[in-house]
Amino acid sequence: MASFVSHTSIDCSDAQALSRWWQAVLDYVEDPDDPNEPGDDECLISSRDGHHRLLFIEVPETKQGKNRVHLDLRPREGSRDDEFARLQELGATTLDDRRNADGTGWVVLADPEGNEFCILRSEAEVAATRGAVAG
Description:
It contains three helices and seven strands. It has helices at residues 15-26, 80-90, 123-128, and strands at 8-12, 42-46, 53-58, 71-73, 93-97, 107-110, 116-119. A four-stranded mixed β-sheet has the order 4-7-6-5, covered by helices on one side. A three-stranded mixed β-sheet has the order 1-3-2, with helices on one face. The longest helix is centred in the N-terminal third of the chain and has 12 residues, at 15-26. The model has no long low-confidence stretch (mean pLDDT 93).
């Protein structure tokens, strides 16, 4: 017997605003039968195929310290650096740039509420340098 991940929960101060931000980042969708509304204290978004869901839950306290769990993102199209630029335009904050001169590496970012996540190289970039350190 085994379990599966129903959804990943993210504590926040504004569930609707943060769910909208992540919708733009991931191209996720709301449940049309249960749309996320301003003032909702829980907002759920899902990948278009329904295999991954993020649940944003309003909590009274602010984020403190580093996340113990975070998302690692890969661009579906284009390069890591193109996606990095897009995420900055959406309002992500750069926390640590771990890109290497040989093109490997990643960037640690934060969403508008300070939750850390990383942007990795695309699968195409990794395949182009097969044999090099992935990441």
